[in-house]
Amino acid sequence: MDDSKIIELYWLRDQEAITQTNMKYGGLCRSISMNIVSDSRDSEECVADSYMAAWNSMPPQRPLRLKAWLAAVVM
User: Fold this and answer.
1) d(Cα 29, Cα 44) in Å, to the nearest integer?
2) CA proximity to 2, closest of 15, 20, 16
3) b/e per residue, 32-53, with b = 16+ CB within 10 A?
């Protein structure tokens, strides 16, 4: 799914936004978090917290590049 459509799902408060985010960027988010915490459980919690942060931030934020924005949130 196109990033702009995923962002629109967040703005519509559609929980499918989380599913689509995970499908498209879950691997990236897990990779970043594993490089930071080096524990699979902690990594999954970090990713879940990042998705929650995305949910709570959109709206009002509308990232121009979702991939870069998510990577920054995970860090």
Assistant:
1) 9
2) 20
3) bbbeeeeeeeebeebbeebbee
Q: Are 49 and 70 in contact (CB under 8 A)?
A: no
Q: How far does the chain reach from its first CA to its final CA, in angstroms? A: 24
Confidence grade of residue 25 (pLDDT, cut at 50, 70, 90):
very high
CA distance 2 to 51: 17
* Alpha helices (H) along 1-75: 3-11, 16-37, 40-57, 66-74
pTM reported for the whole predicted model: 0.90
Among candidate residues 12, 11, 51, 2, the one with its CA nearest the CA of residue 28: 51
